[in-house]
Write a structure and sequence with these properties.
The chain is globular. The N terminus is likely disordered. The N and C termini lie far apart (35 Å). A three-stranded antiparallel sheet has the order 1-3-2. The chain is built from four helices and three strands; from the N terminus they run H-E-H-H-E-E-H. The protein is an alpha+beta fold and 73 residues long. The chain has one domain.
């Protein structure tokens, strides 16, 4: 995980950010979990939170990724 985008759980909770698990994101985006980990490592989801061995991604970052990947004809 990219350390410059990581924040603490306390900071995220203070902001009231909802966070999603990697497995949930993978299911939602129809991707493999490893692909989501690679996206996190590449800095695609800013504000990623590491809690112990678990990684949480802000829901707003996932929504921004989805909105940015829409192709309009």
């Amino acid at each position: 995980m990219n350390t410059r985008t990581a924040t603490t759980l306390a900071h995220a909770a203070a902001r009231g950010d909802a966070a999603e698990y990697v497995a949930d994101i993978a299911t939602r985006l129809r991707l493999a979990k490893m692909t989501v980990y690679r996206l996190i490592d590449a800095g695609t989801f800013p504000g990623t939170i590491r809690v112990g061995r678990s990684i949480r991604v802000p829901a707003a970052a996932v929504e921004a990724y989805l909105k940015g990947s829409v192709i309009t004809p």
